[in-house]
Amino acid sequence: MDVTYEGTRRELTTDKGVLRYHEAGDPDAPPLLLLHGSGPGVTGWRNFRGNLGAFAEHHRCLVLEFPGFGVSDAWEGMPVLNAGKAVNLFMNELGIDSAAMIGNSMGGVVGVNLAIRKPERVRKLVTIGGVGGNLFSPSPSEGLTLLQEFADDPDRDKLVRWLRAMVFDKSLVTDDLIAERWEAAIDPDALATGRAMYGSAAFEMQQQFMAAADTPPYWAMMHKVACPTLLTWGRDDRVSPPDMALAPMRLIPDAQLHVFPRCGHWVMIEAKAAFEATVLAFLA
Q: What Gene3D superfamilies does the record point to (predicted)?
């Protein structure tokens, strides 16, 4: 099976621009959408390239690149909302009525919101950190504070500090990873998306909006998630600390939580084999 970058790369032309994605596995197998997170230099390929071979043995894997992160064409509007719209459009264009989904961090938030608003779309859901609210830990967390500092004034040193906060094992932050992430992080679309999501001004506006809003935050509506849900978390996550898992674990009716020791925010990378085994058993 070809799970290389070139061998899996695809393009889908839509009336909103080109959506780019990676596809691997039997086209007749159950579909599995892999939804990436946010942060400097992120792409769906970089989040999930190490897991694609394992999941493609059992599923038709589709790694969608969200608009605004430097791979798919950018859309106007809020990146998280655009990501949810892109998933809907993507599924419509490919004729996929429903699918299992794995969402890393922001991708998990996208998956949860889809499960709340369009439950027929999400057959099963796996989240990797990021979902819920800070119940006991400070907000913004250490990792998000470092991300905010990078968004306000990007430079290579800030990128390295943020990358080191993403993992338990600092040896994973190699020179190659830093170079790869830096090259992608300075893409104009990616910089604009980062400022819109994490810049100090954007964060302050979000806080003011939430304080004045009459609607509850998305995570307070998680009792509406009807599909079986697996919450995965790194015990040493400094971006979305494990206390965030308590609300979704309690509110989602059919939720289970798996916490991986000696692991940070990138569970699918840092606890690769255990994560894959846990997710494949859940999806089966």
A: alpha/beta hydrolase (3.40.50.1820)
